[in-house]
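Render this sequence as a predicted structure.
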Amino acid sequence: MVKEHKKTFLALMALLLISPSCQAGNQVCVKSHCFNVELAQTRDEMIKGLQFRQELDKDSGMLFIFPQSYKMSFWMKDTLIPLDIIWLNYEKKIVHIAKSVQPCRVNPCPSYAPANNAMYVLEINSGLSEQYDFNVGDRVDFKINLEKK
């Protein structure tokens, strides 16, 4: 009897390990494409962002979560990889996309900002917003754990 329970337990564990929904941490999904994201919720996390990263996995990104909506600007100071920066409003709809924003090579660094208020910003690898045909007005789904560290 114990042997059968052990087999059942091992089979269930194997299913859990290979199930994508169980493996996924924080995700942001636009249309049919999902990105595994790191969250930037604190002031220090937001200041650091993706600075000094040599690379970013193709299906990864960073989601900045602000306490209120406003026209926040971003720059690429000390960011080493080109990015697409996507601003989302409180309804989680895309309000602006800055495509293929290059690392800052001049001082002062240029800033990038939306024309409309936003509450969230998603940074992903350069070119992916165009590759996956993301557009202003697209709805974005979050699968995230907002518990503070």
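Summary. The helical segments are 2-18, 20-23, 43-48, 128-131. The domain at 25-143 is CATH 2.60.120.1140 (Jelly Rolls).
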